[in-house]
Specification:
Blueprint (H helix, E strand, L loop, with lengths): L1 H5 L12 H6 L9 H15 L4 H7 L4 E10 L5 E12 L5 E8 L4 H17 L6 E7 L7 H15 L8 E5 L5 H14 L28 H13 L11 E5 L3 H12 L3 E7 L2 E4 L6 H11 L9 E3 L1 H6 L1 E7 L8 H6 L1 E6 L8 H9 L3 E3 L1 H4 L2 H15 L5 H26 L3 H20 L4
Parallel strand pairs: 3-4, 3-5, 6-7, 6-10, 10-11, 11-12
Antiparallel strand pairs: 1-2, 2-4, 7-8, 8-9
Length: about 450
């Protein structure tokens, strides 16, 4: 039976915790720390694939952690000091790659965790990049357009010596978008010698199409998630054209996933975002909801659905729940309420380890983030290649190549699951680490 291929025991319950590496690196494990959680999960997989000890130690810490403080002129005339980070985790497979986040809760250990996930994601989906991540602690909703532009230009100039179009390539993440990438790219290009200007537009991906962005980049993460579902759901006895689903987050990832699933016949019945939760048994039109969110900034107040509580949202019976908002939202408490057959992680690290255990005990399949949301970095890679060659692809070419990367990555995870007899998350790390381990074996450690 196909299901027995997908459903096997969690590796986390059958292997020793990677305490030895933590001890050697003098990391005092804090169970609530996202970086520690992420490294622990990666090291469990590293043991399974028998990754060499020195490679485990290298991967358990980022190569570089950059922290900057920079002043920005605010609209009322005063200067405010902001804190920004760029973490470069690993570049064995290619230049560091990862988004830049603007959010009030940006903390170094979260950025480090997200950089690790980028290393794993790029390796799993076989794009020739390493892992990085950045962020500025700020609330973009409270900044004017002028303030956002000045902040972006100052942040870019503060880290410009540490990044590069063949060295470390940022992209959008939560709170940033194509407009911010346009300011970022322009600032970087202005700072470089005039004759290198055109080649330097590869400094970021996720740019507007007019400035060298790729068609299909905006929807890429949602599209990649849908490609994974099309590959995985039949083996879990779910018919995508007839399924129900709910979304946490209706931003870039949640909104595109919703619209693309709706186009395949699936029915959205509930959405939770920062403003609250809404529900309609008969189905919520993703296209109408998109217009509402564009006008009001949130799903709350949508006239074609009723407001519900968060606990009613989590308890809602659906085939698939897609968390596409922030990290750590599916806790043990929420996981006990979840009434879905599958959780498909659109967001990075949306499930806590405790939440994971509860979902596993309850027989709910988790399709892990480094697989489900890899479509974004894959089309970022396509954008970077198109910028390098000045040869631009059609939307159909982008979709077709993205689909190929996603399907092969999904199959890699299924194979690793059988080979290493572990859960899907561990299998995705195993498939990623096999590739990184081979690269390290070939080069050795300098000198
Ligand atoms: P976004 O800013 O476009 O949307 C974020 C959504 O999360 C919004 O709907 C917001 O209302 C919701 N949200 C915020 N706080 C919330 C809370 N406390 N409770 C419920 N909802 C909340 O961001 P995005 O680009 O869609 O990214 C979402 C997630 O996907 C992040 O984890 C991001 O790292 C990950 N991701 C994004 C991309 C991409 O290409 N955009 C690629 C890979 C991974």
């Amino acid at each position: 039976m196909a299901n027995t291929v997908l459903r096997t025991k969690s590796a986390s319950t059958s292997h020793h915790l990677p305490a030895k590496v933590f001890e050697e690196l003098e990391i005092v494990r804090d169970p609530g720390n996202l970086f520690h959680q992420t490294i622990e999960q990666v090291l469990i997989a590293a043991d399974l694939v028998k990754l060499k000890h020195h490679q485990q130690i290298i991967l358990a810490q980022p190569k570089n952690e950059i922290m900057v403080h920079f002043p920005v002129l605010m609209d009322d005339g005063h200067h405010q000091l902001f804190k920004g980070y760029r973490v470069q985790h690993n570049n064995t497979l290619g230049p560091y790659k990862g988004g830049i986040r603007y959010h009030p809760d940006v903390h170094i250990d979260d950025i480090k965790a997200l950089a690790v996930l980028m290393t794993m994601k790029c390796s799993l989906v076989r794009v020739p990049f390493g892992g990085g991540k950045g962020g500025v602690r700020c609330d973009p909703r409270k900044l004017s357009t002028d303030e956002l532009r000045r902040l972006t230009r100052r942040f870019c100039s503060a880290i410009s010596n540490q990044i590069g179009p063949d060295y470390d390539i940022p992209a959008p993440d939560v709170g940033t978008n194509a407009q911010i990438m346009a300011w970022f790219a322009d600032t970087y290009q202005q700072m470089m010698p005039e004759h290198t200007r055109q080649g330097n537009n590869r400094i970021v991906t996720g740019k507007p199409v007019e400035l060298g962005g790729s068609v299909g980049r905006e929807k890429a993460t949602g599209q990649g998630l849908v490609d994974v579902l099309v590959e995985m759901l039949p083996e879990l006895d779910i018919d995508i054209s007839d399924m129900t689903f709910s979304l946490i987050g209706f931003g870039n990832v949640g909104g595109w996933t919703g619209r693309l699933l709706e186009d395949l016949g699936a029915k959205l019945v509930a959405v939770l975002d920062h403003s609250g939760a809404i529900h309609n048994d008969k189905g919520i039109s993703c296209h109408d909801l998109t217009e509402h969110v564009a006008q009001t900034g949130a799903v709350g107040g949508f006239s074609e659905a009723a407001a519900i509580s968060q606990s009613d949202f989590y308890s809602m019976s659906v085939d698939v729940l897609v968390p596409a908002a922030m990290e750590q939202m599916i806790t043990a408490e929420n996981a006990l309420l979840i009434n879905a057959k599958v959780v498909a992680e659109g967001a990075n690290a949306p499930t806590t380890p405790e939440g994971d255990s509860v979902l596993e005990e309850r027989g709910i399949e988790v399709l892990p983030a480094i697989l489900c949301n890899a479509g974004g970095v894959t089309v970022s890679y396509f954008e970077w290649m198109q910028n390098k060659s000045s040869l631009y692809w059609t939307a159909e070419e982008v979709d077709e190549r993205l689909n190929r990367h996603m399907i092969l990555a999904a199959r890699r995870v299924k194979l690793a699951r059988v080979k290493y007899e572990c859960d899907m998350r561990t299998a995705s790390y195993c498939a990623a680490l096999e590739q990184i381990g081979r690269a390290y074996d070939l080069t050795g450690v300098f000198p």
